[in-house]
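INFO batch 0412 | record 1 of 1 | parsing
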Amino acid sequence: MPNAPYRIYAVRYAHRACNTSEAFYGDYHKAPMTMDYFVWALTNGTETVVVDLGFTEAVGTRRGRQFLRCPGKGLAEIGVEAAAVKHVILSHFHYDHVGNYALFPNATFYVQDSEMAFYTVCALIRLNYDKRLQFVDGSREIVPGIAVHHVGGHTAGMQIVTVAHARGQAVVASDASHYYRNFEEGIPFNTLQDLPRMYSAFAKIRELASSPDLVLPGHDPLVLERLKRVGNGIVEM
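INFO prediction complete | emitting tokens
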């Protein structure tokens, strides 16, 4: 029997004001805009995978972010109990994607070799000693219907996630494309490790997604408008 398609949930947990010069490479206008922070849950009733961990309230406050709720509370609203999750994909190691590892005591965390080689994150080193890290070199299926793919660009080991959705193959791009505009217009985000690979990441996203409307960027407030609302700051594809 084929696996049931996955539902993809975006759970907003924080928010901040920013400007276009921060979000779009080569933009010098500094026009005001906003950025949302999400964690993602992928579930088909049999398997559940969480993508990214968000930051803690203390870290967000120190950085001037508007912390809305603990990501674990947002996940609980859609029936995902963090303590029961067995699979967590870390798209990359920036602070807003690795902060709440302690909420997932029974999870294995999937990371790219090249990201672990580029960054030193003490908590992840401890998880490695506990045999709770799984290293990927390129592409790998995590559970049936969900796979990760190394793209680089934003960070050395940036990875995106493909998901078997009812409408085709979806891509959770995370920070390979912060906003829809990044990949739609081919404009890299202004924080990057390798500019050429930012462009090749856009190409990989387009190659893997069955259609452009199945691409989910990492920080765009428009995610809450383009997907189906199922809760306060929670939407579903």
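INFO post-check: The longest helix spans residues 195-208.
INFO record closed
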